[in-house]
């Protein structure tokens, strides 16, 4: 367990977009930036128009069965109201 206030060191390695359980590789990359200090982070792939279209199609096909799964607890209990 880390100490409070310690900066986490995470090796994110290589990112790949996943569409319909399949990796989608991209020639274009975008360098992530930490908005708190403008530090360069890691490269992430830029999805193509076809990747986005395929992701929307896959999500549309999955919606009927996915939407019947139980969702998260409602955010109206006493524990939820205690969250600032």
Automatic annotation (TrEMBL):
GO MF annotations, alphabetized: oxidoreductase activity
Domain of life: Eukaryota
UniProt xrefs under InterPro entries: Ald_DH/histidinol_DH, Ald_DH_N, Aldehyde_DH_dom
Aldehyde dehydrogenase domain location: 26-70
Full protein name: Aldehyde dehydrogenase domain-containing protein
Native organism: Cladophialophora immunda
